[in-house]
Write a structure and sequence with these properties.
Layout: H1 2-5, E1 9-13, H2 21-30, E2 35-40, H3 43-57, E3 61-65, H4 71-85, E4 90-93, H5 108-133, E5 140-144, H6 148-151, H7 157-177, E6 183-189, H8 195-198, H9 202-211, H10 220-231, E7 242-245
Helix pairs in contact: 2-10, 4-5, 5-7
The chain binds nicotinamide-adenine-dinucleotide.
Length: 253
């Protein structure tokens, strides 16, 4: 297994934040010797993260500033990967945003923004990366959806719709790329402790964890292990699937 990850190239979107899920996934596979492309919005943050990962795990890294809602940015990002590494084995579509409100109060701008980043962003990155990743003997794509996309969370019409769309897109890409042996799978996390959810008051977080059958919230590392499984050798015959990593929050879905 150690040899499998070594010297491959992974691009993880939304991976600059040191406390986010993207970085936890990066850390898991960089530890095994995979070279890493850190992709995120802020140019300084991506360079900082790329340097930290390089120094910590002694792998090659590339920091790419990219807005996943812009096709030109996504194409340019993949061109940089081609020039730097000449290959791409793993794509993790992790970048995402929230803009919660009751359906009757969601503005058109907040609807568009969430759908653009969470759904169109996955489409554009997958499309831009497809030619390169289809050449990999072990091409793998992992899309980060959410249990909100399965159950439909109140006050998340935009977010839940975008994440349900990611599940459909995962299944379509899995079918289209299967002829070249590239697998595409989706992970549906429940509630993870990251910057995205830190803004919630402590009493709400407590209530949320009590609602989870396993009675605790996930750490980014709880979810990163599942991403590593999907990218790994043992998942080579698994494609088009959706796996909940939610402490049982959406049992039955
Ligand atoms: P986070 O806010 O810590 O990280 C998201 C990253 O995406 C940030 O670094 C941000 O800069 C980047 N990003 C946002 N818009 C972008 C754009 N247009 N182009 C490029 N990068 C962009 O959030 P997180 O909690 O680590 O979330 C990671 C993923 O997990 C998201 O897709 C999120 O929807 C999903 N998720 C999170 C939770 C949770 O409870 N935190 C639950 C289920 C699913």
């Amino acid at each position: 297994m150690a040899e499998y990850f070594k010297d491959k190239v992974a691009l993880v979107t939304g991976s600059a934040s040191p406390r986010g899920l993207g970085r936890a996934i990066v850390n898991r596979i960089a530890k095994e010797g995979t070279n890493i492309v850190i992709l995120d919005l802020n140019p300084e943050a991506v360079q900082k993260a790329a340097l930290e990962v390089k120094n910590t795990y002694n792998v090659k890294t590339l920091g790419v500033a990219c807005n996943v809602t812009k096709e030109a940015d996504c194409i340019s990002a993949i061109n940089q990967v081609k020039i730097e590494f000449g290959r791409l084995d793993f794509l993790v579509n992790n970048a995402g945003v929230l803009k919660d409100n009751l359906l009757m109060r969601i503005t058109e701008a907040d609807w568009d923004m969430v759908i653009d980043v969470n759904l169109k962003g996955v489409f554009l990155m997958t499309k831009s990366a497809s030619k390169l990743i289809l050449k990999s003997p072990t091409g793998r794509i992992v899309n980060i959806s959410s249990v909100s996309g399965l159950i439909g969370q109140a006050a998340q019409a935009n977010y839940s719709s975008s994440k349900a769309g990611v599940i459909a897109l995962t299944k379509v890409s899995a079918r289209e790329f299967s002829g070249r042996g590239v697998t595409v799978n989706a992970i549906c996390p429940g509630f993870i402790q990251t910057d995205m959810t830190d803004a919630l008051p402590d009493d709400i977080k407590k209530k949320l964890s009590e609602m989870v059958p396993l009675k605790k919230l996930a750490t980014p590392d709880d979810v990163a292990g599942t991403a590593k499984f999907y990218l790994g050798e043992d998942a080579g015959y698994i494609t088009g699937t959706v796996l909940r990593v939610d402490g049982g929050a959406a049992i039955g879905m």
